[in-house]
Amino acid sequence: MGKLIYAADDEDDILDVLREFLLNAGFDVRTFHTGDRLFEEFLKKPCDLAVLDIMMPGRDGLTICRELRKISTVPIVILTARESETDQIRGFMLGGDDYLTKPFSPSLLVVKIKALLRRAEMSSPVRTEAEFGDIALSSSEHDVVCGGKGIGLTMTEYSLMECLIAQPGTAVARNTLLDRVWGIDNDDIETRVTDETVRRIRRKLTKAGSSVKIAAVWGYGYKLEAGDE
């Protein structure tokens, strides 16, 4: 059985195309006309990846993305008919992992989905662990471990921590993080997506009882600090 994909869109034509291409790519697919139905099904049986249209009856895709992110690290792809940088940033801020604007190439969506699933499973070929303070970056678990337990990072959050722990105690610029984590190479783009992701990681570190802090460097970026600093 292939990976289980949930897709929500209020257009039957879109769902038919998604179902056909994803099934042909070897995935198990379930489609929904609303994000609320997808979320209800996810609570019963979590999927391996979710595709969410923004504009749907009931709660929109961004709201469902936020609700999924509260309970899961499942990879999420956001779809929208609006070619808006604001929508893209909001999707990333709420925990989306990738973004595609309608009309889109179904083949490109399949490529993105495969890449996200590989990224969720991959191990680092360079080093297996990197430590800082009381945390360790586990490439096998694709998570940060504190006290022997993973803290439950999403793929995007893990990628950001990977950037920070690679330069322990050294500030990493927001623009560098935007480029390396999200593939956004634009000095003028809204950087709240980085700040929001850091906020979520901080909350998880605190919940895990870690003494490691992500310190903001005013006007520049972020760096890791050990508890005794």
Number of strands: 12
Q: What CATH first level of the largest domain would be assigned?
A: Alpha Beta
- Average pLDDT works out at 85
- Please give the count of helices: 8
The CATH topology annotation of the largest domain reads as: Rossmann fold
- Uncertain stretches of 5 or more adjacent residues: 123-128
Reported CATH architecture of the largest domain: 3-Layer(aba) Sandwich
Largest sheet: 5 strands, parallel
The end-to-end distance, rounded to whole angstroms, is 49 Å
CATH homolog superfamily of the largest domain? Response regulator
Structural class computed from helices and strand pairing: alpha/beta
Order of strands in the sheet with most strands = 2-1-3-4-5
Rg, rounded, reads: 18 Å
Shape: globular
Order of helices and strands: EHEHEHEHEHEEEEHEHHEE
How many domains?
A: 2
Task: Give the SSE map.
Layout: E1 4-8, H1 12-24, E2 28-32, H2 35-44, E3 49-53, H3 61-71, E4 76-80, H4 85-93, E5 98-101, H5 106-121, E6 129-132, E7 135-138, E8 143-146, E9 149-150, H6 155-165, E10 172-173, H7 174-182, H8 192-207, E11 213-217, E12 221-225
Parallel strand pairs: 1-2, 1-3, 3-4, 4-5
Antiparallel strand pairs: 6-7, 7-8, 8-9, 10-12, 11-12
Helix pairs in contact: 2-3, 4-8, 6-7, 6-8
